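TL;DR need structure tokens for one chain.
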Amino acid sequence: MKDRGARGETQAGHARVAAAGAVVAACVLAALLLFAAEGGDYRVKARFLNAGQLVQGNHVDIGGTEAGLVEDFEITPDGQAEVEISVDEEYAPLRQGTRAVIRASGLTSPSGRYVQLMLPAEPEAGPEIPDGGVIDVDSTTTQVDLDQFFNIFDRPTRRALQNFYKGGQRQYAGRGDQANAGLKYLSPQLAASTRLFEELRHEPPVLERFLVDSSRFVTALAERRDDLAALIGNLNATTRALGSENEALAEAVGRLPGFMRQANTTYVNLRSTLDALDPFVEASKPVAKRLGPYLDELRPFAREAVPTVRDVSALVRSRGAANDVTELNRTYPPLVDIALDTRAREIDFGSGPKEVGERRGAFAELTQALRDSAPIVAHGRPYTPDLFGWFDDFSHTGAYDALGSFSRVQTYFNAFTVSEGLPDRLLSLPDRGAAFRSIAKLRQTKRCPGAAEEAAGDGSNVWSEEQQEALDCRESDRATGPIE
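>> reply
TL;DR here they are.
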């Protein structure tokens, strides 16, 4: 029994030794695989601002594929981290333009760092980097940890950022479904924005002009910021006033469709009116050019007329009772009765009033008078220069020079002073009449317009026979020329 027990203990001891040896062998094999792995023979040094928690044995990544290992670290005299990396033979040698970036497998993970190499494109690749060469700091990027990012914010900023996320949580609390439904439209919007920027990329001059014009526009707004602030303030007051009248605004909006339909009909009818106005506009263009000097002269008159118009305005309507034309007009009979009503006309012959017809309103009488006087006015219109010429001569009794006013004196002879060298007392009355008729032009009852002037040599102030017949005038009645 003792021999059998001793033999069993011996076998159990051998089993334990074998198991321990297997464990040691597995650890040694894992260590060899993990720590004793050798990179490629080609090595380069990449300089970073800091090593970003790299350790020896971290792998090197090219295009998502493991392509080498981190071998060693050194600190340069200027305080930069020089990381030595080995690169597998299939990716060696690297070329100038290669960029090295320290990356992490996660934002919050301090471990699992690796070096990513981004190879340059063939046209941009420079010469080869020799074995042991250096990728300078201007071609490397250090991993920025999340806590480093947040450390750039001061305490008030961090608190505001926290409040921002809390506000976002309250904003979307209970509205997740609506937010998800809205996000469905984000993709089409981004696609449309992509097409927009593609179009802008094809037209750089147009985009440049748009940006320049926008800059000028914003600059102009900045120069007029005080006026813009007043505009916004007034707009705020207007909007507030509209909001306080929401019922009236709702009623106006309700009536707007009918108004728009009526306006649409009006605009459609307006097209034919505009077509009919085209000849009028064409005919008005020469007149419009001549109207400019007249308006230039009218401007000083309008400026000087402002006080007069102000006084007339005060005369027409002024504060107080019984002190303006408007209130005076209220004391007159209603204008509609005088202007439009037709009433019976009555005359009192001593035995009481009797109706002798009707009396039309002033407007009806005026219309008839204007209609009847139109031929008379049309006949007298060509004589306008003659009439104004008479006004001009009649209104001037003298003239002025540097010495003051003066008058011209002319001697006129009438029918009773005409003689043929004989004293008036020796010439009989019948003889005076005969003498007057011999030197005067008589019976000029049908003078044409402008007949007081001498006939021009080119005939420009001589009316044709058709015009004379229409005016019922005669060229022979011209006031100048030889005496018949």
